[in-house]
Design goal:
The chain has 274 residues and is α+β, with helices and mostly antiparallel strands. It contains nine helices and eleven strands. The strands form three sheets. Strands 1, 2, 3, 4, 5 and 8 form a six-stranded mixed beta sheet that branches. The longest helix has 17 residues, at 8-24. It is globular, with a radius of gyration of 20 Å.
Length: 274
């Protein structure tokens, strides 16, 4: 696409740097600045510096979940390792993110960050203040696809993220839609089949944790051997091999489950990821 992308999340990081530049804090800032971008995930935090519009070498750490102090110390340590001064920090976070107040109303499974002004709190761990901007991770991914991905020519589209949770974003009339309570597009909390499935949400059916467990059962492999980063590639290969021969697949079992009220969805061919 003309720009390097780590992944969907990495692409989100690139655009979040732009969002920070555009909406944030200095309208004169351009892509020709040094922006350190963090993608905060439930299990891992990825980071990379964009300089002069080019992506540097990315890094990954385990997301500290033992408390807020270890979390902010870890981010501050990454900031301190940068060889040159930073013009800004962009932060991608799961959950309901109030971009006006820059507050993580929720933060997905990272309960230690609920209610935090993550950018402001991070400043307390830095030697010098650095402007920051925070946004929901799925919104970042959608804006990234609009900027330099598969949605460059689209003004109206929806994006779904599947990870340890399920997220979503809406792009309408050429703009990201966050919603009154910062929940627009968050289909992971939808209850698809209350009558037979009760209060089970889309995340209960489609998160990578659940899919990995189903994959392990279906193909008789240890659950711990299923890495979320490669799960969909493995599904693609295995499901196709079975679906074309009429065999049982994880999709038929998981999405057409009768007794536990699973959503009735049928696999139609291959998984296609952006």
């Amino acid at each position: 696409m003309g720009r390097k992308r780590l992944s969907m999340g990495g692409n989100a990081i690139l655009y979040q740097g732009r969002i920070f530049i555009k909406d944030g804090l200095d309208n004169d800032m351009t892509a020709k600045k040094r922006i350190l971008a963090f993608e905060i995930g439930t299990f891992f935090t990825r980071y990379v510096v964009f300089e002069d519009g080019r992506m540097g070498i990315p890094g990954t750490i385990a997301t500290p979940v033992d408390g807020e102090e270890p979390f902010y110390q870890a981010l501050a340590h990454i900031v301190s390792k940068q060889r040159a001064p930073l013009d800004g920090i962009a932060i991608s976070v799961p959950g309901f993110i109030d971009t006006e107040k820059q507050v993580a109303v929720t933060a997905g499974a990272l309960s230690i960050l609920y209610g935090h002004e993550i950018g402001r709190k991070l400043q307390g761990y830095l030697d010098d203040p650095i402007p920051t901007w925070m946004e929901n991770d799925a919104n970042c991914a959608a804006m990234a696809e609009k900027l330099s991905g598969n949605a460059v020519k689209l003004d109206d589209f929806a994006l779904i993220t599947i990870d340890s949770g399920v997220g979503g974003a809406l792009f309408l009339d050429g703009r990201i839609r966050r919603g009154k309570d910062w929940r627009a597009g968050e289909l992971g909390m939808m209850i698809p089949n209350y009558e037979t499935g009760g209060f089970h949400t889309m995340q209960d059916y489609l998160s990578t944790i659940v899919l990995a467990e189903e994959y392990a059962k279906e193909f008789d492999v240890p659950t711990g051997s299923i890495v979320p980063a490669t799960l969909f590639h493995r599904l693609d290969e295995r499901v196709c091999a079975r679906s074309w021969t009429g065999g049982s697949t994880i999709f038929h079992r998981h999405f057409q489950h009768r007794r536990r009220g699973r959503p009735r969805m049928r696999a139609a061919g291959r998984w296609h990821l952006p």
